[in-house]
Amino acid sequence: MKKPILLWALLWTFTQSHAQFFNEEVKKLYQKATEKNDTLQLYRLQKEETTVDMQSARFSFLPRVAFTGTYTRLNDDIVFPENLQTLLMGTQGLLIKEKLGMGFNAALPPGIPLQEVDPIQRKNILKGNVNAQWLLFSGFKVSNALKAYQHQQRVYDQLAVKQQTKLWIDVAEVYDKMALLQNADAIIRSSEKILNEQTRFVTAAIQNGLATPLDRKRLELAQQKLEVKKLENKTNMQLLRYKLHQLTDMPDEELQLLRPELVAVALAPEALTNTRPEIKALDEGIAATGYMEKAAMSDYIPKLAAFGQYELRDKDLSLLDPRWFAGVRLQWNVFDGLTARNNARKAVLQRQQLEVQKKSAEDMIRLGQDKLKEDYNMATQKLALKNAEIKLAEDTYDFVDKQYRNGLAALTEVLDALNDVEKAKFEYQQAVYDQRQAALKAAELNGLLLNNP
Questions:
Q1: b/e map 141-166, b = 16+ CB within 10 Å
Q2: How far is CA 185 from CA 52, 226, 420, in A?
Q3: Are 169 and 39 in contact (CB under 8 A)?
């Protein structure tokens, strides 16, 4: 029981000044990364496109009003048949004779012209009208389409959350590596101070005949090795700045001002219960395909619409054309060549594909949770071990150094002990990095990372 208590006490000392996963520098870098990230911009645009689709669906219930102008030329005027024209002309003559008080068989007085019978439609037709259509009932097609679009928008929201989580991991990984290199430089500077002190001691010892020039050569070689390590760290640090520039688009001048810190984090196992955004996105996609199926099948439900038209120019209207009309139309697709059925079947197949993907993703997450939990626990336990190794290496170095100064040990033993101290300190920093990465990956797998920024 003592070992877990000591382990959590160690973590408590790490997390008291840094209770969250990320400090302000990482949050600033993450903000820049979200502004630059092309994938997030793509999801935002796709969501806006879905918003336009939703507006178009709602606008289906707005009246459609259009102005139309046409010119038509027929091969000839459309007229009444000849016998009907003769009848109309005779009737016109009878009416005139009746008005004049003449008999039925009396001849019509000369000089009284008869009006020609107007054609039903003249061959030159110029029309202008305004017409309107208004959907009153869509058979629930619009309402189902709106619900499908709403779930589709949530899909893009969850995909954006997934990408944001990935950005946290990417930014934190580069930042932590920079902190690891910075701590390695600090260890090298500490070793340099010790070597400088040893060099002064060896120089004095040579003057007194207690050491040989070969000992000084060994110290110079050790210092050169430290210089090589410093150069390697400088090159690696610049490469990390390039990577961070790609993620955030921040200039190198600002990146050089960063002061990364490497701090272990504590992850409560009971908190690993949230659903990952991929699963939420698949759930929303499954719900969307359900409404897509209903929208497709609603093509078989009767639809109701109002319509009307008003002629702005009545000069060329035929004798049978109305000046205006209005009405209500009921449309019921009884058989459409199975188009709606196939569209509904396609939506069902899409939903089944998403369900298979969800099951596969859940299986992979369950496997990953167990593995990452073990990785996190092992990395956390390794911290205590590495901390103890530092104490042992420092005590060993102090002992060997005293032995060397009293002429009871060789300089090579002192340098070996110093290397052990340097190695133990760096391995401890590497262990902190590994523990932090294990905690971040475990939190990311369980969908907790955005809740603990």
A1: bbbbbbbbbebbbbbbbbbbbbbbbe
A2: 55, 10, 16
A3: no
CA 252 – CA 441 distance, rounded (Å) = 28
- Tell me the pLDDT of the chain averaged across its residues: 87
Residue 17 has pLDDT above 50, yes or no: no
CB 61 within 8 A of CB 163: no
User: Do 302 and 332 touch, CB atoms closer than 8 A?
Assistant: yes
CB 247 within 8 A of CB 172: no
Sequence-separated (6 or more) residues with CB below 8 Å from residue 406? none
pLDDT at 92: 79
Q: Tell me the percentage of the chain whose pLDDT exceeds 90.
A: 58
In this structure, the number of other CB atoms found within 10 A of the CB of residue 245 comes to 16
pTM, two decimal places: 0.80
Q: Which of 453, 451, 436, 432 minimizes the C-alpha distance to 271?
A: 451
Average pLDDT rounded to a whole number, residues 65-71: 95
8 A C-beta contact, residue 357 and residue 416? no
128: three-class secondary structure by DSSP? strand
Domains of the chain: 2-62+139-301+347-451 (1.20.1600.10)
The segment with the largest mean pLDDT, out of 197-201, 206-210, 245-249, 373-377, is: 245-249
Which residue bears the tokens 């000369």? 110
pLDDT at site 46: 96
Instruction: Give 321-363 as a DSSP string.
Output: --SEEEEEEEE--S-STTHHHHHHHHHHHHHHHHHHHHHHHHH
pLDDT beyond 80 at 265: yes
Tokens, residue 112: 């009284």
324-331 vs 303-311, strand pairing mode: antiparallel
